[in-house]
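Appendix B, Record 12. Input sequence as logged:
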Amino acid sequence: MDELCSYNRHYLAVDERGRILDGWSDGPCPGRETAGAVLLTDRGGYQFRLHDGGEENPQLMSREGVPLYAWDGDKVTARSAEEIAADVAALPKPGPTASQRLEAQVTYTAMMTDTLLSEAQEGTL
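Logged structural output:
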């Protein structure tokens, strides 16, 4: 029966800590580079799955971009809430948004204008 079936290989991109950064199947991604990737299975379906019978193309990252799964060298495991929270806490804090920078500039300009007008009226300018 296996001779009649067509299988696809499923791969993982894993960082130095074993966190899964990406996963794909060579079905829809036949030419994708696999050097350095972990071969999860060579008997998978067309769409990528982390586990046999699992969800197709599952979400691998949190909304903050933190990996939700890890590779222990043998199998895929879900990362704990504590591990994910620690990674989120370690993310660089974002700087001010464009809107916040504009608001600060407008406030500064208004403040400087008020100061100059006061000095001009007092004759100290």
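The mean pLDDT is 90.
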